[in-house]
Amino acid sequence: MIDFVVLCTAAFLAGGLNAIAGGGSFLTFPALVFTGIPPIAANATSAVAVFPGYASGALGFLRELRSFDRRALLQLVGLSIVGGVAGSLLLLVTPASVFNWVVPWLLLFATILFLLGGRINSWIESRGRQDKNTWFATLVVSIYGGYFNGGLGIVLLALFSAQGMRDLNLMNGLKNILSFVLSAASVVTFTLAGIVYWYEAAIMMVAATIGGYIGARLARLMPVAMVKSIVVVVGLVMTAVFFARSLA
After folding, report:
1. Contact 45, 187 (CB under 8 A)
2. Does residue 204 contact residue 197 with C-beta atoms inside 8 Å?
3. C-alpha dihedral over 108, 160, 84, 3, to 10 degrees?
4. Is the separation of the CB atoms in 174 and 160 below 8 Å?
5. How does residue 238 score in pLDDT terms, banded at 50, 70 and 90?
6. Are 51 and 176 in contact (CB under 8 A)?
7. Mapping DSSP to helix (H, G, I), strand (E, B) and coil, where does residue 91 land?
8. Which of 115, 137, 235, 245 is surrounded by the most beta carbons within 10 Å?
9. Which of the four pLDDT bands, split at 50, 70 and 90, describes residue 246?
């Protein structure tokens, strides 16, 4: 019963957090590890658990998504599929000891990147390079997302910010739809590999979907500064937890 409550709570909050600004896997991944699932399998199961929430979250931003160029959106979706499969295959061949060591560093990287997103954007603007190599950056981020779903939304928001986007609602809509497509590609790969804990995943999928829809509604009401602060705090706390765990 304790495990059930932990998984439901983590997934619901993760779905809402993903819809608002990203970083939901900062909650689902450690919750699964807490219940005794090995880290690599927990990462795969976490990806399965939160990906329906991305779809419900994207529905909350349909107005903004309809205004985005369809050709550009299809290009982003295609790159996300390729990167998601590549990253998930990379995870499958990574030794457990290596993955345990790299997790806190990946969490720290994602949090810092989100925190410095505005400065990165200003630097890129000053150099006049906003639209160059966009496809390559998207592919790299998608590979990261397929390998380690934790912080994917944060990295995507940082990417959009670096590309010169200003509308946080549009950025959130794009983040959710790309996260859904990318995670779906990863889910197929992990399922074929047989490393998903489906009982835990099914419980969390329901809770994350509900949280994602509610989170998308709340995102319109919350100040941008508050949204960013929530993500950064969650990211730093989870980074500290996993650094302590890797040293234990």
Report:
1. no
2. no
3. 50
4. yes
5. confident
6. no
7. helix
8. 235
9. confident
Q: What is the mean pLDDT of the chain?
A: 82
What domain count does the chain have? 1
Using an 8 Å Cβ cutoff, are 39 and 241 in contact?
no
How far is Cα 50 from Cα 23, in angstroms, rounded to an integer? 11
Instruction: Give tens-digit pLDDT for 7-57.
Output: 999 888 887 777 676 667 778 888 998 899 998 999 899 888 877 777 776
In Å, how far are 31, 38, 176 from 97, measured between CA atoms? 19, 11, 31
Q: Which residue in 62, 52, 3, 72 sits closest to 208, CA to CA? A: 52
Under DSSP, the state recorded for 94 is S
Structure-block tokens of residue 75 = 């290009």
Place of tokens 């859904």: 180
Which DSSP letter does residue 128 get? T
Q: Which two tokens stand for residue 195?
A: 């490393």
- pTM of the complete model: 0.77
Tokens of 206: 């329901």
Residue 197: count of CB within 10 angstroms of its CB: 20
Span 133-179, pLDDT tens digits: 578 888 999 999 899 877 777 778 777 877 777 787 888 788 888 98
* Residue carrying the six token digits 């959106």: 73
Largest CA distance in the chain: 55
Locate 13 and state its tokens.
């909050």
Q: Which domain holds residue 141?
A: 2-247
The structure tokens 């941008």 sit at: 224
The gap between the terminal CA atoms of the chain, to the nearest Å, is 27
By the 10 Å C-beta count (0-12 exposed, 13-18 middle, 19+ buried), 127 is classed as exposed
Neighbour-count burial of 242, counting CB atoms closer than 10 A to its CB (0-12 exposed, 13-18 middle, 19+ buried): buried
Q: Does the pLDDT value for residue 129 go beyond 70?
A: no
